[in-house]
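User: Let's play a game. I give you a shape written as tokens, and you guess the letters that built it. Ready? Here's round one.
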């Protein structure tokens, strides 16, 4: 396995500076964020370390030379919008830009693009499956043509009781993943696996790894801490009884997680996703978060 981090945590850095940071903090690779240039409406979004809007073969060669010079590889390109937004313009822009990210990944010779399936949070999953096929059919076909695999992250994107049971991503559980893979047969669609999202949904991460071992294309290393008092007060529908933490500072059983990954033969990237607010006040805090996470995860990733 290769240890990396998600570049969203350092939006102020250039691509070259991101690679320098990876070398300084002990990482082999980076998942590079490829949002359209501009602001975003939520945290960790809207980060553009690689602008793919007019990305050419010459641009790809410059990036690959930078990787060689810095001795840091790109694990995947990342773009996490809502391609199933109820707003048609948002939905269309997300799908069009995702196609450009796929094109850039192909020019760079990368195997994976990471993203969300998306969701209209006001509607049940069953009621929008026609839209899933309509929106994602062309995207999957385009990725297949470019020989790119798509790693779907499974965060429900559900942040308040007012949204229950919605959220902005419907690929939240094994039942939905099975249906997605039946709807889009072939190897193009898979998972960008993150155990922190499974933890608070009470989904057994090692069991997921063993069932979907052939669909795990990328891994995010993020922990979560369960607050038992809030869980008692609010119940499982309270949602805010878990807090994102650095690996090793929450309740994910990393020993069982990596044991399952190694048992099933996973040998791809494992990228730290820093969303721990205790380490976000300054750039030095975020750098410290990366160093601390690498130190911990080197127990499992050589």
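Assistant: Ready! My guess for every position:
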């Amino acid at each position: 396995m290769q240890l990396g981090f998600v570049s969203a945590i350092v939006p102020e850095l250039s691509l070259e500076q991101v690679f320098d940071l990876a070398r300084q903090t002990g990482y082999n690779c980076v998942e590079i964020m490829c949002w359209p240039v501009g602001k975003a409406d939520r945290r960790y979004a809207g980060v553009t370390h690689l602008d793919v809007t007019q990305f050419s073969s010459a641009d790809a060669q410059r990036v690959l030379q930078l990787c060689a010079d810095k001795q840091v590889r790109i694990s995947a390109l990342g773009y996490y919008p809502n391609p199933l937004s109820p707003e048609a313009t948002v939905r269309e822009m997300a799908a069009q830009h995702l196609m450009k990210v796929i094109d850039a990944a192909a020019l760079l010779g990368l195997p994976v693009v990471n993203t969300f399936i998306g969701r209209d949070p006001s509607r049940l999953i069953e009621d929008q499956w026609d839209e899933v096929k309509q929106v994602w059919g062309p995207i999957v076909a385009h990725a297949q043509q470019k020989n790119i695999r798509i790693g779907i992250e499974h965060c429900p994107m559900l942040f308040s009781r007012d949204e229950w049971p919605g959220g902005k991503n419907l690929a939240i559980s094994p039942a939905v993943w099975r249906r997605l893979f039946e709807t889009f047969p072939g190897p193009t669609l898979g998972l960008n696996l993150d155990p922190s999202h499974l933890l608070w949904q009470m989904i057994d991460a090692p069991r997921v790894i063993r069932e979907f071992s052939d669909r795990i294309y990328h891994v995010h290393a993020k922990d979560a801490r369960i607050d038992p008092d809030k869980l008692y007060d609010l119940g499982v529908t309270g949602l805010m009884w878990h807090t994102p933490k650095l690996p090793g500072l929450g309740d994910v059983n990393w020993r069982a997680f990596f044991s399952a990954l190694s048992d099933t033969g996973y040998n791809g990237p494992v990228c730290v996703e820093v969303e721990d607010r205790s380490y976000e006040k300054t750039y030095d805090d975020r750098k410290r978060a990366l160093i601390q996470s690498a130190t911990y995860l080197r127990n499992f990733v050589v």
